[in-house]
Amino acid sequence: MNIINVLDNGYVRLVDHMGSDLSIVNAARVSYAKESKEFSDRDARLIQFLAREGHTSPFRHAVLQFEIYAPLMVARQWWKYIIGSAHYEGTGDSLEAWNESSRRYVTEDPTFYIPSSTEWRSKPKNSKQGSGDIISWELGEVYTKKLMEYIEIGMKNYEAALESGICAEQARLFLPSYGMYVRWYWTASLQSVSHFLNQRLAHDAQLEIQEYAKVIMSLCREYYPNALEELISTK
Predict the structure, then answer these.
(1) Are 213 and 200 spatial neighbours (Cβ–Cβ below 8 Å)?
(2) Which is the catalytic residue, given 60, 172, 183, 200?
(3) How many CB atoms lie within 10 A of CB 149?
(4) Has 200 been annotated as catalytic?
(5) What separation in angstroms does the CA of 91 have from each of 4, 183, 196?
(6) Could you read off the pLDDT of 10-43 as tens digits, one per residue?
(7) What is its EC number (predicted)?
(8) pLDDT < 50: residue spans in the chain
């Protein structure tokens, strides 16, 4: 099973995929009624050309489906790529799909992302977003404890509301949201996945989503090594 753990309780699982590097070059060559039976150096050069010249449609004939379990703060950043997929200039990609578990229906025990005392980061010096260096262990210990206490209060109120007969879709209001793990399926073309990777592997991306992007990259590379080499500018 293609599953890799991320953060403290998260994971990415490659559920399914369609196509390969060979699929990409054959999609490009169909204009000339040509087809490669086996991937060759000539095909690798064609992928280089397609990526370099911005001929993006062949890369949309390769599709991947992932199951992702991540804190809500990561999921909502990720969701921007679904909203923008049909409108982003140059992609023309309207084939993305996102289906997420809902606490209107699911009442399994919530799981929360809790940074350890050595994982809290300072605010950046020269930017309004992002983060800086790791703060001191002593201060990190204080805020790990505060977060755990906050989650405990929210969980008690959530469980009390359910026990009192409050519906799940309203009881969930008591749950601390941004650190709560959510599960979803993401299906996207290789071009769209590459756009996500180029932005979220960048050094100024939020660290937590960078960790997920690294895993997505590793799972994709097995099936599309040549295409990824040309499409990803942040190696």
Answers:
(1) yes
(2) 200
(3) 10
(4) yes
(5) 28, 26, 12
(6) 999 999 999 999 999 999 998 777 788 889 999 9
(7) 2.1.1.148
(8) 87-93
